[in-house]
Amino acid sequence: MKPDDLKVKILGIVGTPIKDGNCQYFLEQALEAIEAGGTATTELVHLEDYRIEYCAGCEGCLRRVHKLQKELGYDTVPVPVKDYNCGIRDDMEVLHKKMLEADGILLAAPVYIASMPGQVKTFIDRCRTFVHDFRLRGKVGAPLTVAFYRNAGEDTTLQAMSLSLLALGLSVVSFGASAVTTKEGLGIPIRETRFAVKHDMVGMTLMRAAAGQVVEAAIQMKAGKLALEEAGVQVQSGSWTIAPTIPG
Ligand SMILES: Cc1cc2nc3c(=O)[nH]c(=O)nc-3n(C[C@H](O)[C@H](O)[C@H](O)COP(=O)(O)O)c2cc1C
Asked: How many whole angstroms separate alpha carbon 47 and alpha carbon 31?
């Protein structure tokens, strides 16, 4: 194993209707901190640049996963579905590809009424295939959020995003970080700067810590996978699908 084998790719995904806003800036700073470490490359995608339809609830992704599991056995992990396992032809195809190529994902979204904006939830719903095909297993993730007021939904938003990442199969390796976009989080606008979030020292510090945790865990995960491969050890992680309960 050489140091170059352990370079990792961290994908930053930001979901907010606002381009070049505080949330994007918060994520950009996290990715900049990661790049500065010299052990990872990064890419930022803004969901506003992608056409993402609602999940239609057709369960086509699930049916294709189950069909393969029936053929190959329920212990097959990951399930070798086609790269894009969704019936809706839109920009999610590009996003699935980027997620599959990444070693770690930072998901950033502002607090909208104590949770993530609908745009981000729609994006997550469209990732349902990963819940069942386990293709994101072995990748790490963490959430980032920004809010107007201090303690006005940051924790619930971080939790909702963490649970979503976990459901998609990622290992969440940090609580993540939140920052406020107003003076001391009191709702008083900071007019002298474009990115008010940079005045939140606690938020900025915790964001860099979360970024560090993600890159460190991504490298350790990659090193672990390579070490197992070199040692010829196969971990039987298995799928949690219980065969007899699958209809059809
Ligand atoms: C629909 C909506 C709901 C919001 N809900 C909350 C909230 O519950 N708590 C809070 O502190 N800020 C709330 N905000 C403020 C945003 O979190 C804040 O303005 C954030 O900086 C937006 O980031 P952005 O400019 O990068 O999109 C809300 C904003 C909008 C538009």
From this structure: 17
Task: Kindly report the CATH number that applies to the domain delimited by 3-245.
Answer: 3.40.50.360
Phi, psi for residue 19 in degrees, rounded to 5: -90, 145
Q: How far is the CA of 155 from the centre of ligand 1 (A)?
A: 14
Between the CA of 22 and the centroid of ligand 1 the distance, in Å, is 10
Whole-angstrom distance, CA of residue 153 vs CA of residue 37: 31
Nearest CA to ligand 1 atom 7: 113
Could you read off the pLDDT of 166-212 as tens digits, one per residue?
999 999 999 999 999 998 888 888 887 788 999 999 999 999 999 99
Per-residue DSSP letter, 143: E
The pair of three-digit structure tokens given for residue 10, joined into one six-digit string: 């961290």
Helices (H), ranges, the chain: 22-36, 60-72, 92-101, 118-125, 128-133, 154-167, 201-231
Determine the Cα–Cα distance for residues 241 and 77; give it in Å rounded to an integer: 11
DSSP state of 186: B
104 in contact with ligand 1, CB cutoff 6 A: no
Q: What is the pLDDT of residues 132-163, one digit of tens each?
A: 999 999 999 999 999 999 999 999 999 999 99
Please work out whether the CB of residue 227 comes within 6 Å of at least one atom of ligand 1.
no
153 in Cβ contact with 147 (< 8 Å) = yes
Q: What is the pTM of this model?
A: 0.95
Alpha helices (H) along 37-177? 60-72, 92-101, 118-125, 128-133, 154-167
Q: Where are the domains of the chain?
A: 3-245
